[in-house]
DNA sequence: CTAAGGAAGTTGAAATATGAATCATTATCG
DNA sequence: CGATAATGATTCATATTTCAACTTCCTTAG
């Protein structure tokens, strides 16, 4: 209890950390987006490509992809439609569950991925990773992983 | 140089830290948004309110507000229009520069802020701050503040 | 087997975001 | 001073996101 009404306001130290996280999170996402722009991709596009690239047969069920990328089904559906129009992915029916669909990386999508990935990694390094020490990174992971876990579990309700 | 083409891919440790940051950043923003929903506010709305609340005379020039909240002028303009319709802020002309406008907190906006802030802080605590130790927070700030600084300086070009 | 309910995905309309063009005013400079 | 550039902000068009409604197929209890 800090003040009259019982609200525990943030201390200066807490404020600073919180704002830093917030700022980095937004500035970084903008910067990465900008760095992807020359390739005609958005962060969302890229994330889809990464997920598909890393998957068995370069394919994922729409639902799983939605979960993995933290998007709503609807949003993902639109997103995939756009990427389909751009030739990066295609939809394929699912044998085992005829309601289901796979999003599948096309040849062109895979090529794009191989071409863009190095630039993206460079961008992540330049604007984040390489600005931190190994200890920083360890500490960061140690701090944030539990938070992520908490948030994932809290997700969907509360 | 790690591989054939000279790309320095991320090590496992780097990957983990990077993904953790990414995940927290998005999950948290969703969670905070959800916690604001009962009050009819979005994260963006709230951030505007915070900025205005903390400013001299509860007012800020549009440009400054745009910079402070990392939004484009266009986006901020729309945002303020919406908040104006909701009765949270109003626009006022600027004497010294007749091109300029102030966004000003209304009484209702200020009341809203006072009512919502405690809940928002509680939410930030519950989903972030209170999951971290004091040392975590110090380290976080130490790591991220320079990154934020870098990103702010890089911003607008490169 | 079948009806009820749930899960996978899509769709369309409304809300919000982005980017370029525009308008009015102020700054600058020869 | 007057022309030109730059600033502050909005607007219009387009793209993306959101939300609710809907379709199809699957699951399960009776």
TrEMBL record, chains A, B:
Listed SUPFAM superfamilies: Winged helix' DNA-binding domain (SSF46785)
Limits of the HTH marR-type domain: 14-149
SMART domains (UniProt xref): HTH_MARR (SM00347)
Classification via Gene3D superfamilies: Winged helix-like DNA-binding domain superfamily/Winged helix DNA-binding domain
Protein name in the entry: MarR family transcriptional regulator
